[in-house]
């Protein structure tokens, strides 16, 4: 049997959902949502990239093309012919590579503070700043604090930063950075049949980067059936900041049939 990435499964329902985390995250990010999830209607698989979480020891090229291949291999292993995708931050860009690889298998997508297919378009100076976090947990905490509007306790930002060090290898963390920071595959998506998939985007009202303006210029311009909702009292990490509200809104969207 082909080796597959590690994951955490929650639920046993007929609606299949695969969830991709952000650069600082892992399958552990979604724990706070579990008490609010409808486990009879949904089966959730919280996927771990190579070098992260349940896949910590799995080496690789650390590219989104590889992620797409790994996601589809896992779906095959689970005997999922069709399923929906949820992607947070970096995971929003990664799930679009899955969509492009197998558009006929994706029912709908939900992006949470989701990086668009054009990436973050970082210049060299900003890329170097993010690259410095690979070996500096304090800088990781600083980015987390900024991305949540500098309004939450520093202890929480430090906790999330330390968890990212513990649950990802430096090689994987560094490898995925240029994938979401500088790559751009939007030309493959614009006007394609894949872009017809229904998409719901969620952004936090305090997220300084993944804003409504950015979503309107990218996701909503490229996906004809995309809609946008702003989550109150949240920044870049709604799964931690407003988990029950996020779970409720996600399932309301995923249960729709049109």
UniProtKB/TrEMBL annotation:
Enzyme category, top tier: hydrolase
Keyword set includes Zinc: no
AB hydrolase-1 domain span: 17-241
Keyword Transmembrane: no
EC number, UniProt record: 3.1.1.85
Entry-linked Pfam families: Abhydrolase_1 (PF00561)
Record keywords, A-Z: Hydrolase
Domain of life: Bacteria
Single GO MF descriptor: pimelyl-[acyl-carrier protein] methyl ester esterase activity
Designated name of the protein: Pimeloyl-[acyl-carrier protein] methyl ester esterase
Source lineage: Bacteria, Pseudomonadati, Pseudomonadota, Betaproteobacteria, Burkholderiales
